[in-house]
Write a structure and sequence with these properties.
Layout: H1 7-21, H2 32-45, E1 50-54, H3 61-76, E2 80-84, H4 87-98, H5 101-106, E3 107-109, H6 130-133, H7 138-142, H8 144-149, H9 159-169, E4 172-176, H10 177-186, E5 201-204, H11 210-216, E6 221-223, H12 227-235, E7 243-246, E8 249-254, H13 268-283, H14 289-304, H15 307-322, H16 330-359, E9 364-370, E10 377-383, H17 387-393, E11 400-405, H18 411-417, H19 420-425, E12 433-437, E13 449-452, H20 462-480, E14 486-489, H21 493-501, H22 505-508, E15 511-513, H23 517-528, E16 534-537, E17 553-556, H24 567-575, H25 579-592, E18 604-607, H26 612-618, H27 625-628, E19 631-634
Parallel strand pairs: 1-11, 1-12, 2-4, 2-5, 3-4, 5-11, 13-18, 13-19, 14-16, 14-17, 15-16, 17-18
Antiparallel strand pairs: 6-10, 7-8, 9-10
Helix pairs in contact: 1-2, 1-3, 2-3, 11-17, 12-13, 12-16, 13-14, 15-16
């Protein structure tokens, strides 16, 4: 069918889908219908394969993605993935989808195994679930009769198995970018019927985060504590029963050489010394480059030397569980985790080496930081040129890409950062990137942005400035908004705690302070159910939906510059001078938008860091006109 000849049918399909799946009382917001129409028409035409849409807060990015994906699936049999930047945004999609029965029945929504699902049999993450350790295929777990015969009748009501099976069979699936990479680029390599496959379309929400998210998937790290995995692998001396599965014989045939002992020429002490020496060199940022290169290569050899061992252990564990029907000992459970860690580390390292070969070692930054959990140094290798990995492992997986964000930081810079030169090589005539900017329809007359140009929160001045700013913060909270909810964006946990600890008791009792992502999610929920609480922390700038009375004021205490002493940031600034200020302005624009969520909504913003003036003057073109008009400078 030539879709381009039936434009009116497409329009009717969009309206029909909204009524059927959302409800008869649903009304499109201004520009929403036209944007969905443009998205679908471009995909159906098969000409413009990359669409970048700058959609301001309130334009309904989630609905743009959901309705577009739903229409393509329902009427044109085109499947897709909707990708999100974090689990908080994932939760928003999940709640909307589950709140509409017809969408719930046709869409799949999936989280990663680690930290989100727990195995009933061994009380571990699904990544280390009993069925994973036994190497039971997903296809067998999806079949209730087969799973029960194997001793896994729990599969029929396991939340992860059910969600995974539904997602696999749904034409539209919502998942995070990280999970998508794992499913498509790693697990998908298995190419079996229970693996997720590439689809014609990907919808990318909060697309300004893509370069950082995808690059993090190719950032290997080393720490001293990792030696425990290698020592466990080395010390295992179990008997290995090897068998092959032949095409003409579905039953496993045990080889005549039933027993094979793992043998190492090196002692465990030698292995530990070798690893420690490699780590010591890589941890020394002043070490000569020749020595670093040598240690880099030795680490790769060190990793590869364990490959055969891991294969043997995994085969033995699988045989014990599937054929002998014996439970795993505690030692074997720990051993499986080490094998799993090794597989992930080896895969990450191989992908990282491939990136180096493509883009060059000069774009790799070696940095050393402190692990907060274990108080040990961590050596990290990060790529500061993201365009290759973004294209290779995300955009090239789908013929059509729909990318949305409220803050792109300039279309030219963004398109280069996501690999425009690689996109253009895909098509003989060159890839034409379609860019659309949706106008804001909000009434900002009651949402001024007050900028107090007095005290700088730079590294050298922040301690003294905080002394002056605390009374201002207290006055805003207690005098201007004594009975209303709001938030304080602090830039760091340390500053947040400082403000909290020194706040008057009546304000402190309203403050919801968190220390990590898990606590943050809990505090946001608590805030939404309260009357006059104040969220306070460093990561309240995006992916948070606080409409109406949930947020009537926002205090931006510190301009959220990336940490300049970080080696990655320094190298990124050196190679891409405009990146530093552009990224910071994007973060501020995102942060301001947390409290204006619909047309009649209002929220007053206070920017207390005088450093904002210099930043604003250097990146003014990034700020929407309506936002510029809201800024009121207080000297």
């Amino acid at each position: 069918m030539d879709y381009t000849t039936d434009i009116e049918l497409l329009k009717e399909n969009i309206k029909d889908w909204a009524v059927k799946f959302i409800g008869t009382d649903f009304e499109f917001r201004e520009y929403q219908f036209d944007t969905i129409y443009d998205i679908c028409l471009n995909i159906l035409n098969g000409i413009n394969h990359t669409q970048i849409i700058e959609a301001p807060t309130g334009s309904g990015k989630s609905l743009l993605n959901i309705i577009s994906a739903g229409v393509l699936a329902e009427y044109y049999d085109i499947s897709s993935y909707i990708l999100v930047s974090d689990l908080y945004l994932w939760k928003q999609y999940d709640e909307f989808i589950n709140g509409h029965k017809n969408i719930k029945d046709s869409f799949g929504v999936l989280k990663g195994q680690t930290g989100n699902y727990t195995c009933e049999k061994n009380n571990e993450d699904m990544r280390n679930a009993d069925c994973r350790m036994a190497n039971i295929s997903w296809a067998k777990l999806y079949n209730n009769a087969v799973a029960e015969e194997l001793g896994y009748d729990c599969a029929k009501y396991c939340p992860y198995v059910k969600a995974r099976k539904k997602a696999l069979n749904s034409k539209v699936v919502v998942m995070t970018y990280q999970l998508y990479h794992f499913m498509i680029n790693i697990v998908g390599d298995n190419n079996n019927s229970s693996s997720f496959k590439q689809r014609p379309v990907i919808f990318c929400d909060e697309c300004h985060n893509i370069p950082k998210i995808i690059t993090d998937c190719f950032t290997p790290s080393l720490r001293l504590s990792n030696i425990k995995h290698f020592k466990q692998l080395h010390s295992y001396k179990g008997e290995i029963k090897m068998y092959d599965l032949f095409d003409d014989n579905p039953e496993p045939t045990v080889r005549t050489q039933d027993y094979k002992l793992i043998h190492f020429e090196k002692s465990v002490e030698d292995i530990e010394k070798e690893y420690n020496k490699i780590f010591e060199i890589l941890c020394n940022l002043n070490a000569p480059s020749t020595l670093v290169d040598e240690a880099f290569n030795k680490y790769e050899e060190f990793l590869e030397s364990f490959n055969e061992t891991v294969c043997c252990i995994e085969s033995n564990l699988s045989y014990k569980k599937q054929e002998l029907k014996q439970p795993f000992t505690q030692e074997e459970q720990i051993l499986y985790k080490s094998c799993s860690w090794y597989r992930n580390s080896m895969c990450l390292w191989n992908d990282f080496k491939m990136c180096i070969e493509e883009i060059g070692i000069e774009y790799i930054v070696r940095s050393v930081s402190e692990s907060k959990l274990q108080e040990e140094p961590v050596v990290t290798f990060t790529c500061v040129k993201e365009d290759y990995v973004v294209h290779k492992f995300l955009l090239s997986n789908a013929e059509n890409r729909v990318m949305m964000s409220a803050t792109l930081g300039g279309i030219e810079a963004f398109s280069e950062n996501i690999g425009r030169k690689y996109l253009e090589k895909e098509f003989v005539e060159g890839e034409q990137i379609i860019y659309k900017q949706i106008p804001s329809t909000f009434d900002f007359s009651k949402s001024p942005i007050y900028f107090i140009n007095r005290y700088k929160m730079s590294f050298k001045e922040k301690d003294q400035s905080l002394i002056q700013l605390k009374p201002i913060i207290n006055k805003i909270c207690s005098v201007r908004f004594p009975n209303e909810r709001g938030m304080i964006q602090t830039g760091s946990y340390a500053i947040a705690k400082n403000i909290y600890d020194n706040a008057p008791i009546e304000i402190q009792q309203r403050m919801l302070l968190y220390n990590n992502a898990k606590e943050k999610s809990y505090m946001i929920t608590k805030h939404q159910l309260s009357d006059n609480t104040i969220l306070i922390g460093p990561t309240l700038v995006e992916g948070i939906d606080l409409p109406g009375d949930q947020c009537r004021f926002i205090i931006i205490l510190k301009v959220p510059y990336p940490v300049i002493v970080d080696d990655y940031v320094k190298q990124k600034m050196k190679l891409f001078p405009l990146w530093y200020n552009s990224t910071t302005s994007n973060t501020i624009i995102q942060g301001i938008g947390r409290g204006n969520r619909y047309k009649e909504d209002y929220c007053i913003t206070y920017i207390l860091d005088a450093c904002f003036l210099t930043l604003y003057n250097s990146t003014k073109n990034q700020y929407p006109k309506e936002l510029q008009e809201r800024i009121k400078i207080i000297v």
